[in-house]
Amino acid sequence: MTSDILSRAREIQDQLVTWRREIHQHPELGFQEHRTAKLVTDVLHELGLNPQTGIGKTGVVGRLGSGKPALGIRADMDALEIQEANQVPYASRVPGVMHACGHDAHTAMLLGTARILSQYPDRPPGEIRFLFQPMEEGWDEEGKGGARRMIEDGALEGLDAVFALHVDSTIPTGKIAVESGPIMAGVDPYDAVITGVSSHSASPHQGVNPIGLLAQVINAIQAIPPLYTDPLQPALISCEAVHGGSSSGVIPGEVSLHGNIRYYDQETRREIHQALKSALESVRAWGGDFQLNIQGVFPPTLNDPRLTDLVRTSLNEVVGQDSVLPLKRSLAGEDFGYMSEKVPGVYFHLGAGIEGDFRPYHNPHFDLDESALPLGSAALAAVALNYLHNQG
Q: Are 276 and 227 in contact (CB under 8 A)?
């Protein structure tokens, strides 16, 4: 079924590179991806896929075929607030904004997948839905990112499965990694304010120093994962920002703390939330008080075991069994988790590392090996064809 997919993808390598570089030179932040969305829309129109625009604010959805089975393939489009340091012809032309996480490649590869599949002979019946998502890197004023906004606008309605890939600069080009179960964490940012009583630093007994209270709280927070969660379940709670005080000689009236909670399962999440609240409640014994706000922004990304087997089989056909690796789990977050929470899904990684030159994510020097682009398009196309063939 998919024996010629990679050769078809390699025939359009120049086009994939052109798309990727066009997007890379004109990066756009989340929910501002108007130029990128227009490029996507124009290509989908050329392929006869009748794109819908404005889905999830600035997202685009294209449909190929109809009926059941129905699957979705997602690519994210947004860039980051980073000033690019690469001296390359296709460097960002937008000051302070850069594609430093490979979303330009994701968008280009999904366009390539759409082109391959729209021209593929004897395609099995069913629907393939191309989901070009905005704002994966953050969220709006209501705490909602692109995946949630697209779901609210019906982008996943009627789908039986959803798939996505991410370029990976730690994996050599030519390799692809996939694994079942939880592969990325749920992420809950929290903000706490500890209030005391302001006083002159020469008379600390006349006030309640919230900085001293915070020091006790931070010690308690660091003890939460080893003491209050299952040691067999990955869990993290971080203290990332502290703000309080502004003048010499003055004990402030309050101090704020910001951090993140990361987890794979809901019981661990509940345990951390309760332990964090208990740690903060301790300030009341010393005359202080607190406010705590925990915001759930990403659920865990869970790869469906049955669909993971289908993806692994598809990847074996494209690159060979020796080039399909187990995917290392991460406590980073991904809003694809909202999609795989609503519809069974699989999220996997495409090797795109530049040999001898490691380029980490979210870094001014991030870049990737563009020879990996055809492999990404081929992998997604093979997964789609095998899914329709096996479920039809």
A: no
